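Is this the right way to post structure tokens for a design question? Let me know if I should format differently. Anyway, here goes:
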């Protein structure tokens, strides 16, 4: 059900799209003087058409990794390559959808927001409208084309952001907790919609989430990041390692292949085993936990099921 992967293990028959090689990211310490290491030794290959989720404790560097892939941050060491070309800045081959529901242009309508992205991507004026409408139909917003962002719900705004990102036909969609600000029901609906869009467009998705259940339902593979500096108590974020840290620096706790058949439900056999494994890898303290009701559900269900087959670097455990 859950298979631990060696980072260098190639996926059979899959075509590599993105390569992250020995990535380190350091920021100047806000306290002055030294530097903070946020990401260390990240090695990752992302394959064309896959759905990869990144999970980990608050502050462990998930957004920083996504921003490096998007080209908003430059690596301190190492490199990132897309289709063999080094990433040196943002590009329309990597579109990002953010957690905040205020990422739309407030002075433009739903249609205007998508048309603006198409204009920026160099799509000729005569093609823009039809293409924008097509993608807005895909996310179910065809009746809201003339609405302004302040007239939309949070879920509708995220749909616009997804349509806008998809409309320029990027190679990959980078999503940073896009559903975190939504209520549970809207979140479930959008998860299903995203899976449908992913299957229809065959786009590659890298999806950051705190929610273990969301990661299991959606992803082919799950990358678990570990904080370089542990949290200072149960509810504080974990930090970056400063210069004096003697800890071995590696940001990757595990890379897991999720072989549960789709569509996935929390009550299906094997779901609870992966959930428990991921919960252990992330750590029990802090906000990385799934909502209590999800947790209770998963634990209750997993108690009745046989343990999933866990393979560690090819050896069954
Ligand atoms: N521009 C910056 N300058 C200094 N430190 C930064 C900067 N950006 C991020 N950091 C630090 O990097 C660490 C990781 O931040 P990041 O936003 O990547 O975490 P995260 O895993 O996305 O957390 P969350 O789950 O809360 O969103 C934090 O300690 C943060 O303070
Ligand atoms: Mg973040």
């Amino acid at each position: 059900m859950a298979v631990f992967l060696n980072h260098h293990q190639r996926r059979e028959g899959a075509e590599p799209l993105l390569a992250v090689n020995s990535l380190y990211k350091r920021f100047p310490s806000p306290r002055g003087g030294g530097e903070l290491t946020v990401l260390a030794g990240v090695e990752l290959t992302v394959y064309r058409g896959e759905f990869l989720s990144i999970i980990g404790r608050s502050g462990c560097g998930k957004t920083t990794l996504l921003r490096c892939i998007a080209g908003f941050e430059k690596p301190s060491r190492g490199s990132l390559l897309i289709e063999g070309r080094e990433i040196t800045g943002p590009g329309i081959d990597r579109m990002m959808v953010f957690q905040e529901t205020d990422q739309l242009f407030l002075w433009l309508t739903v249609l205007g927001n998508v048309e603006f992205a198409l204009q920026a991507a160099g799509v000729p004026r005569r093609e823009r409208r039809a293409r924008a409408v097509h993608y807005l139909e895909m996310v179910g917003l065809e009746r809201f084309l003339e609405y302004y962002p302040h007239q939309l719900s949070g879920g509708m705004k995220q749909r616009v952001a997804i349509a806008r990102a998809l409309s320029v036909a990027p190679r990959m969609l980078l999503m940073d907790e896009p559903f975190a600000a939504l209520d549970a029901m809207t979140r479930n609906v959008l998860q299903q919609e995203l899976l449908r869009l992913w299957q229809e467009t065959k786009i590659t998705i890298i999806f950051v989430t705190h929610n273990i259940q969301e990661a299991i339902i959606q992803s082919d593979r799950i990358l678990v990041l570990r904080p370089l500096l542990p949290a200072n108590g149960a509810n504080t974020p974990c930090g970056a390692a400063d210069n004096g840290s003697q800890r071995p620096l590696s940001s990757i706790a595990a890379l897991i292949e999720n072989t549960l058949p789709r569509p996935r439900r929390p009550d299906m056999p094997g779901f609870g085993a992966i959930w428990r494994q991921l919960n252990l890898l992330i750590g029990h303290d802090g906000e990385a936990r799934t909502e209590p009701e999800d947790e209770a559900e998963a634990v209750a269900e997993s108690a009745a099921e046989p343990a999933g087959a866990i393979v560690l670097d090819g050896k069954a455990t």
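Format looks fine. Someone answered above. Worth noting: Residues 231-236, 285-317 have pLDDT under 50 and may be disordered. The CA atoms of residues 20 and 288 lie 24 Å apart.
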